[in-house]
Amino acid sequence: MLDIARLFLLSAALLFAGCAPVLPHLAPTPAILKDPRLDFATQLPPALKTTELPVFYATTREPTDGPERYGNGQSENVNLGVADVRLGEPGWSWQQLVASDMASSVDHPRDGAVLAVKPFGSAGRGAELTEADRAFIQAIDAQLARTPNPSLVMYVHGYRVTFEEVAVQMGSFAHYLGQGTVVTFQWPTGTRFWNYVTDCPRARQSIPDIERMLELLSHTQAKQVNLLAYSCGSPLLAAALANLREHHQDLDPKALQQRYRIGNVIFAASDVDLKTFARDHVQPALDLSRQVIVYYSRIDRALGFSSLIAGASRLGDPNKEDLEGLDPKQLRELANDPRLQAVDVTDVRGAHEMGGMKGHGYWYANEVISTDVTLSLRYPIAPAQRCLRQQPGSQAWTIPDDYLDCLAKRLLAAYPDLAR
């Protein structure tokens, strides 16, 4: 009877769950960038005030000869390259893009496109760098040298998205980060709702490739590397970090952080087993980084269905009862570690999806939540310092109603040149 019930739930989940395929579009502008007191463009050199920017990629998608540069097939290699991404409509000026930033909303997505890709070749498999590896590092360093933002972001996406959709979405975040340097790790996934059943489990074969990508990025000149994983991209990043830690048993956390320079590790709407994450993934991620931030929502229907199908709660929609059986001492230590932050976004006003299942895309669809995500993609700031609050008796952080006003005032106090 239980198997029949789960089969029914699986069918329902596949009808609605996951990240819905749409034409490439920009994410709505984070709310802090719209604040009339602030002008972030003043910090940007004139040469970077453009509607086109690079988005670097490492992908296990198979190259195609069609308009979609990389398809849904599994490549035998990790292909490295850079995509030239256009933000906004063809022919837009910088001023038109900025004006659209101020007026953007989740209800009116703005177009974007990949104009061209420049492949560098196949990544290596071991410690030795290939010619493509070196070209990839050199191109990233060149972008880092052009921008005042010294941080690098690597993003691991969820399922049911295309290569171009991911590139344009993260191109918009590169724009919001002041022409920041962004790398997407793209694994093959189809564009049908039923691809969830096959694509997310199959994606686990990319875990060693993500681990090597973290090694490769440590060769760049980035001051720090911030990591973001979404939906069923989260177990891939979490396992890659655990493997990386396992392969460096001779190094203590301080040495690991100096070597890899990982600032924040961010998990958003994560489709990963809660108990597995607590037992196997948290400590390695903490050893390698300065902070681990978990965004979760109790109105994320995609993860609600996923939890029912798996018979256990997901990290992005947690149930404390599913932590029973784990070492109580270890759980207390994790709960009291200020570097591990659980941010409950359930009650944040505004959109929590932009296509796809209700409540699953909040990290980019909701302009208040995306403000905190964008800030965390730039700086490893403690939650209280970035205006989050803890409810009495709770260890989870929340985004209060006065969050944006508090944040704007703190940014102006720290960076007076931002005043409009």
Automatic annotation (TrEMBL):
<protein>
    <submittedName>
        <fullName>Alpha/beta hydrolase</fullName>
    </submittedName>
</protein>
<dbReference type="Pfam" id="PF05990">
    <property type="entry name" value="DUF900"/>
</dbReference>
<keyword id="KW-0732">Signal</keyword>
<dbReference type="GO" id="GO:0016787">
    <property type="term" value="F:hydrolase activity"/>
</dbReference>
<dbReference type="InterPro" id="IPR010297">
    <property type="entry name" value="DUF900_hydrolase"/>
</dbReference>
<dbReference type="InterPro" id="IPR029058">
    <property type="entry name" value="AB_hydrolase_fold"/>
</dbReference>
<feature type="signal peptide">
    <location>
        <begin position="1"/>
        <end position="17"/>
    </location>
</feature>
<keyword id="KW-0378">Hydrolase</keyword>
